[in-house]
Amino acid sequence: MSSPTDLSSDKVFNLTGRVALVTGGGTGIGLMIAGGLAANGAKVYIAGRRTDVLQKIADDWASHGQGIVIPLSLDVTSRESILEAKKFIEEKEGRLHILVNNAGAVGPTVPFMNNPDAPEHANAETLGNALFNDAGPDQWGALYRTNTFSIYYMTTAFLGLLDKGSRDVEGYTSSVVNITSISGLMKIAQNHFCYNSSKAAASHLTKLLATELALKGIRVRVNAVAPGVYASEMTLDAIVGEEVLAKIAQSVLPVPAGRAGTPGEVAGAVIFLSSPAGCYTNGQEIVVDGGYLAVNPSTA
């Protein structure tokens, strides 16, 4: 039987020596996750298109001595940019242990959907026309490129480096964590059909990748974390009070926790999946939502 020290938090959640890449790592949930990984010993590359934002974050972390955070220019919707990032990390590190596919956007919305008094709800014809005449298929495609397609292309591009990461630490398997959303598990549109369906696709893509890699004998685990409402650029950066929380959540019933999530709560789920503690977990989606899906119609 293992001794008690084998189960200490600094053992089972230790990320020392691990190399991580977090897309969309300069703001919001991505920054929360990057900070959590770095604080627990990982060397973290934060990737995004706004290099000035990333550099400021890296400088701030360096000045406070809170871990190693390195900016990396990356457009997750471009295969050329993905391959450039892969080449950079391959030359610098030679392997990768943790890939967090966090980059995301909101896309086209239907702001009248939850307003029963809106003229669009007059009858089936007016509702159908209003939904049909939205931002258009090009905008849907653009959002899917960011929220869904990027998961596939990032994971496959870095798969070889992730496999190498699984081989340099005994008993450890590299981890891909896709940041999905409770919106992908909801049965209501929350004013954005496009976003919710793109996140639902990301959830299923997680399971497809996990299963196919396992069947092929590739020792890279793929899981997802589905956050509820957290402070981010997509949710007005700061959420204060239940009224604003309800406006963002667009739920039938309010969030039971009565507040937004904290950085430690979402980062903690990713740390678990990426650490030795999570090496027996594969193909799963962890919902971190303050009870949101427990009281609202969902597929979970």
What does this entry look like structurally?
- It contains ten helices and seven strands.
- With 300 residues, the chain is of the alpha/beta class.
- The protein has a seven-stranded parallel sheet with strand order 3-2-1-4-5-6-7, with helices on both faces.
- Mean pLDDT is 91; it is low at 233-240.
- It is globular.
- The longest helix is centred in the C-terminal third of the chain and has 23 residues, at 193-215.
- This is Short-chain dehydrogenase.
- It comes from Artomyces pyxidatus.
Write the layout of secondary structure elements.
Blueprint: H1 9-12, E1 19-23, H2 28-39, E2 43-48, H3 51-64, E3 68-73, H4 79-92, E4 98-101, H5 124-132, H6 137-157, H7 159-167, E5 174-179, H8 193-215, E6 220-227, H9 241-249, H10 263-274, E7 285-288
Parallel strand pairs: 1-2, 1-4, 2-3, 4-5, 5-6, 6-7
